[in-house]
Specification:
46% of the residues lie in helices and 20% in strands. Strand 1 and strand 2 form a beta hairpin. By secondary structure, the chain is α/β, with parallel strands linked by helices. The radius of gyration is 16 Å and the shape is globular. The longest helix is centred in the last third of the chain and has 22 residues. The chain has one domain: Rossmann fold (3-Layer(aba) Sandwich), CATH 3.40.50. The chain has a four-stranded parallel sheet with strand order 4-3-5-6, sandwiched between helices. Strands 1-2 form a two-stranded antiparallel ribbon. It has five helices and six strands. The model has no long low-confidence stretch (mean pLDDT 90).
């Protein structure tokens, strides 16, 4: 969620995350991009009063596998059961190269993350950047609470909020 400031820029709106813990899955293949993404995500979770745990995986293709392991271990909250994590965010970057590997990584990582999120109804914020250049990635990753890492945290917080609202309305 965001709102426009007086200069026409977008200002983040903080969503209450108190009482919630989130899983952050990082693929720090590009150290500087990963550092900028995590800086934004942590700033957003801290502003929201949420807690979190961080894990690292080698690359974007391993992210959905790590999320799947967390689901199988019963660590992710579902509408049926409360668990350790209310939701998850994923952080990483895939930069286009000269082969079709980029397309394979992007398509499979995103497909399987969304498959897990939809099947198990897990609030998931996605900040795996898919870009043509390193420079494009840095522009999207930086900005603390205005970067894509913060966007992913905000999206996940909002999905948890919606889940709670819908669950209350359904009672």
């Amino acid at each position: 969620m965001s709102r426009r400031d007086e200069m026409g820029g977008v200002e983040p709106v903080t969503i209450d995350g108190k009482g919630h813990r989130f899983l952050i899955i990082e693929a720090p293949y590009y150290d500087d991009i990963a550092a900028a993404l995590i800086e934004g995500a942590l700033a957003e979770f801290d502003a929201a009063g949420a807690s979190y745990d961080r894990i690292e995986v080698p690359g974007a293709l391993e992210v959905p596998q790590a999320l799947g392991v967390a689901v199988k271990a019963g660590l992710m909250t579902t509408p049926e059961a409360k668990a350790k994590y209310s939701g998850a965010i994923v952080l990483g970057c895939v930069i286009r190269g000269e082969t079709s590997h980029y397309d394979i990584v992007c398509n499979n990582a995103n497909h399987w993350m969304m498959e897990l999120a939809m099947t198990h109804r897990i609030p998931l914020g996605n900040a795996i950047l898919t870009v043509d250049t390193h420079e494009q990635a840095m522009v999207r990753a930086s900005g603390r609470r205005k970067g894509k890492g913060a966007d992913a945290a905000r999206a996940c917080l909002r999905l948890v909020q919606l889940t709670n609202e819908f669950n209350e309305a359904g009672k």
